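@channel sequence for tomorrow's demo:
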Amino acid sequence: MPDGSTFALFVAAALVMLIIPGPSVLYIVARSVEGGRTAGLVSMLGVQTGALVHIAFATFGLSAILASSAVAFSVVKWLGAAYLVWLGLRRIFGDDEEEDDVAAGPKRLSRMYSQGVVVNVLNPKTALFFLAFLPQFVDPSRGAAWTQILLLGATFVTLALCTDGLYALLSGTAGSWLRRNMERAAFRRGQRYVSGGVLVALGAVAAISGKD
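structure tokens (generated this afternoon):
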């Protein structure tokens, strides 16, 4: 594994990047405000499961395909963008009956978890991020590179569970407060349009973004 100073530098750099809200955090916040803390935490676990998939890809070099193939990158990018837009439109034009308390619907929580996984797996920039970021802290003299990348990736996800989990709890709490202090029908309409709009916006950003 990397030496202590290199590992500490990696942790510090990872925390800085995780604290600054990115697309994954905005997705988690939207889900948390919409469905409460439980929904936010479940969505966050789905996103981090997707991150583990990318780390496995980076560990075994599969992410290099996205870095070297414009076609592969574009296909994954457009699939991910289309999925986010579809989720957003489904949310905006969905049935209010689907908005009952998620704590009473384990099937819906399972669906939110799987959606979080798919959203992150279909984000090629996440794959390229891990491919570019993790090797910067690998020291070939201290063992096999793939074991170090795997360790660094697992550490990153562990830190992300803490920071993204905090975002989920705070935004879920804010959503609960709004739910208690606003007229129920008005809140449902507002949260549907806001959360759906965030998802559509994230899909649009993903569609127009390039590798850089």
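heads up for whoever presents: Residues 145-181 form the longest helix (37 residues).
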